[in-house]
Write a structure and sequence with these properties.
324 residues, alpha/beta, 2 domains, five-stranded mixed beta sheet, four-stranded mixed beta sheet
Length: 324
């Protein structure tokens, strides 16, 4: 077993920001729940706000053969000990994890949110590729302590940022998208709903300059729509003026997006694209400078939507640079 998780636990304690407490190997449930579960789930790190307003359970997924195991133990524990509004689960996953397993873990987080569990998955040490993470994990704890190969404060900030939300009112909170898989899911949702006349009516006719591209599905979507997600279980579809499309929502919806309003500075389009570039691994390029295949894909996608989404020139694309 590598030493990187132990080093991260120590570094999180050392870099814990003012107003927060940090503990390692904290049980997720009390002894009564543990007896019913048949196992004792623990978090690598628990960050707690001094005022008790927030608790963030963090797992470091460095190189697990099955990174979804920690997601499952948290979700299972929360079936018997429901999570409150003050709690979130944040999985921090490195590039040493195989892409398919990384995608499975990110998809599991979407499922947890659809079930009402505030769960998020962000990159761990995104500046290191898989082989570099493997080498770090092979070092002894004292070697890591001497080398101090990365700024752990950035990792703490990334965990806190994933769980942070903006409160709209007593029932509405919004998070920034935690990873590229979530962004892609939002793009799928936008395309699903724009094809439905009732939900498309909520969109109306909105000029757009910045578009996210999902190369897997060959779809585009407005970047502002893709950069945010509703807090799990809080934005109730019953408040919508329309019937939802025939599938469970796993992220942003047209009804929620329409309720945010175009003038709210917390959900400004520039904030959205900066977040996608700085925190989720997207690069921004002008449409006329993009790969010819991407330009053709955009033209084919946009043609039937031109009346609903008139492009604001110059069109710019946000392209994923990392696997999701």
């Amino acid at each position: 077993m590598g030493s990187l998780t132990s080093y991260l636990q120590a570094q999180f304690a050392e870099r814990c920001p003012r107003g927060w407490r940090c503990r390692a190997e904290v049980p997720l449930a009390d002894t009564g729940v543990v007896r019913r579960l048949g196992f004792e789930p623990r978090a690598d790190v628990l960050l707690e706000a001094d005022d008790g307003s927030t608790r963030i359970w963090i797992e470091f997924e460095v190189s697990r053969a099955d990174p979804v195991a920690n997601h499952a133990k948290f979700a299972t524990a929360r079936f018997l000990a429901p999570v409150g509004d003050a709690e979130s689960f944040v999985s921090m996953a490195s590039r040493h994890i195989a892409p398919g397993r990384f995608a499975l873990a990110a998809g599991t987080v979407l499922m947890m949110r659809a079930m009402g569990i505030p769960a998020f998955q962000v990159d761990l040490l995104p500046q290191f590729d898989g082989e570099s993470v493997k080498r770090l994990n092979a070092l002894q704890l004292d070697e890591l302590a001497r080398a101090r190969p990365f700024d752990a404060a950035a990792e703490v900030d990334r965990a806190l940022g994933a769980a942070e939300s903006q409160r709209i009112d007593d029932q509405h909170r919004i998070h920034k998208a935690d990873n590229a898989y979530t962004v892609r899911a939002n793009a799928w949702q936008w395309n699903l709903e724009i094809a439905d006349a009732k939900t498309a009516a909520l969109w109306g006719r909105r000029p757009v300059q910045y578009f996210v591209f999902d190369p897997v599905a060959g779809l585009f979507a407005p970047s502002k729509f893709c950069a945010f997600v509703p807090a799990p279980g809080r934005l109730r579809e019953g408040l919508s003026r329309v019937t939802s499309p025939p599938r469970a929502s796993i992220g942003m919806t047209m009804a929620v997006y329409a309720s945010l309003g175009e003038r709210d500075p917390r959900f400004d389009g520039h904030i959205a694209r900066r977040h996608l570039r700085a925190n989720v691994g997207y690069q921004e390029v002008a449409l006329d400078e993009a790969d010819p295949g991407v330009q053709r894909a955009f033209a084919a996608w946009h043609a039937p939507l031109a009346a609903l989404v008139p492009p604001r020139r110059p069109v710019r694309l946000l392209l994923p640079t990392r696997y999701a």
